[in-house]
């Protein structure tokens, strides 16, 4: 394929420093403060009512820390917010993701189908919290503990897509066998992770195929990819390497990726064969 510019790709570039407080956190915090003051509550009174510390409530109101879903549900109940906080929760969660990933996460949240190929790691939507934690702790340059915590939480929040019902989202994951044999964290973490793969593969809207190492060379070895289709049938391709990302929507380029992906599906193990392989690996650990 020819060289594609940043404008043609739609979104492309390297992750930059994330020093400013996300606008979604600030907007959410201002609403919490507004509802709290309307209710005649102090920060301490709100903290006591929802089971958080005063410092945590203050941090959320000032936009210094993102609210988790449990905070939102408790605040909705105590402050009678009428859903105003709940509707902002997806934006709050998305803002915890790395900047380079946030635009794609918005496309992903609006998709009706998501097909991916992952050659090196278990895809984020199928990761356990312990697996994600181990990966982020190995990041370079090193991330501080608060950033690791926020990104793990954001990754776990994204997994709600697996259970979305209106409209449902169809998933196909092709993962290299070597990716699930790589021990991330420790044996206990990997045993839990493999069990999670089996759990997800049993979902009606999820297909998980393992590409066996015995397959040898194939076109997927050029790198990972995610293919999305939106409700209006527009298609996108997301590719990432070392935090350099590109999202493409040109019809001819996207078509080539979909054809490539179709070939990979025929080369990978079936869903039943894949589950049997994972089960054998659990027994080997």
UniProtKB/TrEMBL annotation:
Recorded hits in CDD domains, A to Z, give:
HTH_XRE
Q: Which residues form the HTH cro/C1-type domain?
A: 32-65
GO terms for MF: DNA binding
Q: Annotated region Disordered: where?
A: 1-21
Database matches in PROSITE patterns? HTH_CROC1
Q: Does the keyword Signal apply?
A: no
InterPro entries with a match to the protein in the record: Cro/C1-type_HTH (IPR001387), DUF5753 (IPR043917), Lambda_DNA-bd_dom_sf (IPR010982)
Coiled-coil ranges from the UniProt annotation: none
* UniProt xrefs under SMART domains: HTH_XRE
Give the keywords, sorted: DNA-binding
The protein, known as: DNA-binding protein
Classification lineage: Bacteria, Bacillati, Actinomycetota, Actinomycetes, Kitasatosporales
């Amino acid at each position: 394929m020819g060289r594609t510019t940043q404008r043609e790709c739609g979104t492309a570039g390297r992750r930059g420093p994330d020093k400013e407080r996300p606008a979604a956190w600030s907007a959410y915090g201002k609403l919490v403060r507004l509802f709290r003051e309307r209710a005649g509550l102090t920060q301490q009174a709100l903290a006591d009512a929802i089971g958080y510390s005063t410092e945590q409530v203050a941090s959320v109101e000032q936009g210094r820390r993102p609210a988790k879903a449990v905070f939102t549900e408790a605040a909705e109940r105590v402050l009678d917010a009428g859903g105003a906080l709940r509707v902002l929760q997806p934006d709050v969660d998305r803002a915890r993701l790395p900047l380079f990933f946030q635009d794609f996460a918005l496309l992903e949240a609006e998709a009706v189908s998501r097909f991916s190929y992952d050659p090196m790691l278990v895809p984020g939507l199928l990761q356990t919290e312990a697996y994600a934690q181990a990966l982020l702790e190995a990041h370079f340059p090193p991330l501080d503990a608060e950033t690791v915590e926020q990104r793990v939480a954001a990754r776990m929040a994204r997994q709600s897509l697996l259970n979305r019902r209106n409209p449902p989202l169809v998933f196909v994951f092709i993962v290299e066998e070597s990716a699930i044999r790589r021990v991330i964290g420790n044996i206990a973490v990997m045993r839990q992770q493999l069990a999670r793969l089996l759990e997800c593969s049993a979902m009606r809207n999820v297909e998980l195929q393992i590409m066996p190492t015995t397959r040898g060379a194939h076109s997927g070895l050029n790198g990972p990819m995610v293919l999305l289709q939106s409700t209006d049938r527009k298609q996108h391709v997301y590719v990432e390497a070392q935090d350099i990302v590109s999202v493409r929507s040109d019809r001819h380029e996207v078509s080539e990726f979909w054809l490539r992906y179709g070939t990979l599906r025929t080369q990978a193990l079936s869903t039943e064969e894949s589950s049997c392989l994972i089960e054998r690996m659990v027994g080997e650990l």
